[in-house]
TrEMBL record, chain A:
This is Periplasmic protein thiol--disulfide oxidoreductase DsbE. One of its GO terms (molecular function) is disulfide oxidoreductase activity. It comes from Actibacterium atlanticum. Residues 36-181 form the Thioredoxin domain. One of its GO terms (cellular component) is outer membrane-bounded periplasmic space. InterPro entries: Periplasmic_diS_OxRdtase_DsbE, Redoxin, Thioredoxin-like_sf, Thioredoxin_CS, Thioredoxin_domain, Thioredoxin_ResA/DsbE_sf. It is found in: Cell envelope. PROSITE patterns: THIOREDOXIN_1, THIOREDOXIN_2. GO terms for biological process: cytochrome complex assembly. PANTHER family: THIOL:DISULFIDE INTERCHANGE PROTEIN DSBE.
UniProtKB/TrEMBL annotation, chain B:
The keyword Membrane applies. GO terms for cellular component: plasma membrane. It is a multi-pass membrane protein. One of its GO terms (biological process) is cytochrome complex assembly. Residues 89-296 form the Cytochrome c assembly protein domain. It is found in: Cell inner membrane. This is Cytochrome c-type biogenesis protein CcmF. The lineage of its organism: Bacteria, Pseudomonadati, Pseudomonadota, Alphaproteobacteria, Rhodobacterales.
Amino acid sequence: MTRTLAFLPLFIAVVFGGFFLWGLNPDRDPNEIPSVLISQPAPEFELDPVVGVETPGLSRSDLAGNGTPVVLNVFASWCVPCRAEHAVLTSLVERDGIQLFGINYKDKPADAARWLSELGNPYSRIGSDLSGRAGIEWGISGVPESFIIGEDGTVLYRYVGPVVGEAAISKFREALVQAGALEREEP
Amino acid sequence: MTPEIGHFALALAFALALIQSVLPLMGANRGMLLWMQSARATSIGQLVLVGIAFGALMKSFIVSDFTVINVASNSHSLKPMLYKIAGTWGSHEGSLLLWVLILTLFGAGVSLFGANIPETLKARTLAVQAWISTGFLSFMLLTSNPFDRVFPPPADGNDLNPLLQDVGLALHPPFLYLGYVGFSIVFSFAVAALLEGRIDAAWARWVRPWTLAAWVFLTAGIVLGSWWAYYELGWGGWWFWDPVENVSFMPWLLGTALLHSAIVTEKRDAFKSWTILLAILTFSLSLLGTFVVRSGLLTSVHAFAVDPERGLYILFLLALSIGGSLALYAWRAPMMEAGGLFKPISREAGLLVNNLILGTATGTVLFGTLYPLFLEAVTGDKISVGAPFFNATFVPMMLPLVLLMGMGPFLSWKRADLAGVLQRVRFIALASIVVTLVIWYIQEGGPLLAYISILLAVWLLFATLREWAMRIRLFDVSFTDAMRRARNLPRASHGMTMAHAGLALAMFGFIGSSAWKTEEVVFVAPGTTIEIAGFDVMFEGVERVRGPNYFADRGTLKVTRKGQAVTTLFPERRYYPIAESSTTESAIRSTLAGDLYASIAEPASEDAELSGAWTLRILYEPLVNFIWIGSALLMLGGGLSLTDRRLRVGAPKRARTTSATPTPAE
């Protein structure tokens, strides 16, 4: 018994070593985190509206059947990059007619309301995710994150981090074009 | 010329390491004293040669010799001298040289200060230490030569990553490595003991000071890194559960377990194979850290430049050292006989639970850190594991440990009188509850977990002080008598009190700055006033200032409380044109009650820049300074124990201790 137990650390170390050897594959980029949700139906969730904001709440069923792909943005008033991203999202809604939904992630309703009244509210629906439960369902790694969802409710694309700056915006617009939510712009 | 001298010194050190790997070991097996004693000359020789190499690299940095690739890519002629020097260990190659320097430092340390260690054990230990330095010196000479030249040399250097141009961070790697790599000697002692097939109380006594020294340095390294993150990154956070932080934290956790289990081995001749295993695993985790940081295995903010070839070489070294030592362990450990017996309620049992919890916690952090890799290998899914996982698993695991920590020192060896102990801590427990209720009354609200943690922190502080008071019989005898008793207590005993109390104080900081932190992130135009935690902060505007190798936008914030001027804060946003990156320099008003913390980010849009509006982040972090005060006490406590004369003089006898009398509390 003691004999077998004494081999346990070695055994575990060998298993770890195997994983490490695999992990050293030079083609692997650990920094890239695609969503496991891509091409999957959007996860079930149902969120109440943010208290003090008139925009209605958000659930899984609101994302499908809008006649066009929509954007779901996870934001919070405590998140600095979200502020910068806000202007980009607003212009997508106002200039390009994109339908934008929001999940207000782990945010005090009063702060969120103040934030939206200060910067403006481009969202058609906002779900208040106080507990962070919907955030877990969506598998977000931080705030902000944006998803593009097809009209049948399938997740088409995920963008981690703020859509700010020329490179990020053109990448995101390209994804919208691919999804069929935008016409390709003539250069 | 200087770089060539450095390169040559490294090659010579490698040759010495090879000799030291074999000769003393053969000497120990054949009983040839001269061969065993050769380790003394070779280990000191290695230190001197690697020291020369390190000095050569440092000189290249000081004189900005851009013909050396390493200097050209990590330094700049305009950089302040302190950061030129710190640049020596700012890159992969340079930090590896520092790693090896410390490895040889500990080897030479055992040669110089280990006069009381038997020749065979010392020879074997130094041979094992030389195996490690052979591995890493060859790694450096073959894949990461810090002295490579470049022709034609660039006119000026690329500058060091500006985030790293900071006093806290300049000192962070040396301390971290002193800890990390310091555990190598403990590992070598463990492997030597396995080779010898003999572990007893005396072994534990020789190993403990080295463990303690490494632990103190590792604590300092981690705290410096955390302090740097706190004021430099502009977020006001001091721990992010980033993989690279975790790999430095795991050896600390397991090293803490080792410190405590070695006490049992020393005093009671028990836990022997467990102590050996901890010694092996602690250094294995340090090696794992080195591997993770330099191989690009995991996603992290502070990984070095990634090179798969290097990763493969380190993995090979890991397989040899960790695999080899664990195989030796599997073979030899079952032969070690169990030591002193003890009852379920005793000092030994308390330390056993301490070890179980610390071991489980280390396993949890290890699992969380490597889980993304495992999952990706098995299913191909990519995820990241962040703070929520660690907060949900690690914190609840630590709380019972704190409860036990207050109690443990009251327990006597072999068999403790539970009823008596409970009677002694009754009032302490009651007082902790009262204090917590008072805090709850003042604070009004906050998470339940925070109050539970506060209760436990107060309990730990009171119980630790009570135990100390009991030992010097404060209140029982006259004050002068008690002080005389305090002077006569072994220093290690004061050290324990200090370290345990330090942890309690640090906990106040952890809790206060996590549970009651208030934060405002706002767009501000000049003249705007923000209210936070009773302070009024007025933003007066931003001006452009110039530093030696950067420009900065400096904000001015007038802080008042109830109309009374408190202070003026100058948070900066620095731009380093040569490195093409920017950093935030937060401004902090520190008091014991809490920190008022301000940082400015770039203007969020171009319109805002025209109007002079900036994004301002203002935080109030209650009690955060207790983290640094508590950590300082942890280190001082460790340092004080290290000066205990019992660890230095009086060569311990290699006889089985059979004394049944309770040993004085440690």
